[in-house]
Each structure stands twice: as structure tokens, then as C-alpha cells.
Amino acid sequence: MRTGIGFDVHAFCDGEHVTLGGVSIPHTNALAGHSDADVLVHAVMDALLGAAALPDIGTLFPDTDEQYKDISSIELAVRVKVLLERAGFAIVNVDCVLVAEMPRVAPYREQIKQNLSDALEIDKTRVGVKATTTEGLGFTGRKEGIAALATALVCCTKQDVLGEASGLRVKSLHGFGSPAEIEDALNGWFAANAGVEVVSVQIEPWANRFAAILVYRQRG
Ligand SMILES: [Zn+2]
After folding, report:
1. How confident is the model at residue 115 (pLDDT cuts 50, 70, 90)?
2. Does the first or last residue of the chain, that is N or C, have fewer Cβ atoms within 10 Å of its Cβ?
3. How close is the Cα of 86 to the center of ligand 1, in Å?
4. Which pLDDT does position 178 carry in this prediction?
């Protein structure tokens, strides 16, 4: 099992609704951002990625990339779930706290939980959504923006299951731009781990780059 944390802030700007947990909520302002500025989903995604020690959303979905302009963050959460799966992780639960004076989130809580549950393909009982104010203090208290915190727990499916059953282990090497880079990384890993027997090597697309997933066991 591994845990991760996520934190995000977006400032208010002119507009008539905010998107929180994939729900468009009428408000006197919007939230500024390159995507839909869904601060809650952003914190949840970073918690999940952090639990798997994968790069954060700013790295995976850069705000300089036009393909992410105004994109639904719930859609990005689906991609994060796929990345975790590929790296051998299953999501156990997520919990998040929205920090804002306004708007009130309670009427939308069930829909937010449903959206996160659908995107991450986990039961609604594994999604915590809470909201709090800062009693008028700080930037959230002055209604300058909204902050969100999240935690996530994931279990390492491939490693746990394979490891217990047969002594097999899984190693992922991430972030390669070309087949030559993958080959270099694999050769480096083989050289540093001469005592292992490699059972399989799988190359996967990974956040516009490539990852190599190795299954191996110790010799003897
Ligand atoms: Zn954000």
C-alpha cells in the first residue's frame, strides 16, 4: 500500500460558475486556469500520482499545451487512473477537502462523489468529499480563490500479487522519448541487476512518452 497527497489553488476571475468535482456550480465568479480549473479534481489527481510516485499533473498535462485548454479535469482523471493501472497500481480510496468561503458545496456533494467514482472506477464509498471555510482568514477567507487538499491510498497490484505467489517482482522505468532511450535504460538496469532473471519486458505508451514494465525474479 502507498499513500499520496495533493494540493491545489485557483484564483477567482470574472465568470458565473465554478467547476468543482466535475460539477458546474453557479457562482459570482469563475476560477482562472488553463483547463476547467477544477481545483478539487486537480488535488485528487496529484494525490493519486504522488502515491504511485509518478510525475504531477503540471508535468503530465502542461498548461502550455493547447490540447489541455478548457479540457474537463474529470477526463484527465480518467487518464490518471489509466496511468496508475499501467504502472501496476489499483486505487483503494481518495479523500479530499475543499477550502472555500463560497460557494456552498453540500448540495453538490453526492454528484461530485459520483463523478470521481465514475472517473476512477472505484465505489462511491471509497470517495470522501468534504468542504470547510478558513473562518474568513487568508486568501480563501478573503474570497480570492479556492484551495483543495487530497489524499489517496493505492495498492501495488502487480507487485503484491505476483510477489506473493511466485517471487516475481515488477519494475517500471518511465519517461523515455524514443526506442533508443528505452534500450539504454534497459541495458543500464540489466547491468546493475545481473543477478535477476527477467521474465518479461513490456513497452507502454506513457504520458506522451514510453515506459518499460519489467517482470523479474531473483536467480537461485
Ligand atoms: Zn489546478
Report:
1. very high
2. C
3. 24
4. 85
* Cell reading at 79: 487518464
- 193 located within any domain: yes
Q: What is the pTM of this model?
A: 0.75
Helical segments of the chain, H only: 39-51, 57-60, 73-86, 109-120, 138-141, 157-166, 179-192
3-state DSSP helix/strand/coil % of the chain, to nearest 5: 35, 35, 25
The three-class DSSP label of residue 176 is strand
Same-domain pairing of 152 and 178: no
- Which positions ≥6 away from 193 have C-beta within 8 Å? 216
Q: What is the distance in A from the centroid of ligand 1 to the CA of 10? A: 6
Residue 6's pLDDT is 98
Query: With contact defined as beta carbons under 8 Å apart, do 64 and 33 qualify?
Result: no
CA of 64 to the centre of ligand 1 (A): 13
Task: Based on the fold, state whether residues 7 and 109 are members of the same structural domain.
Answer: yes
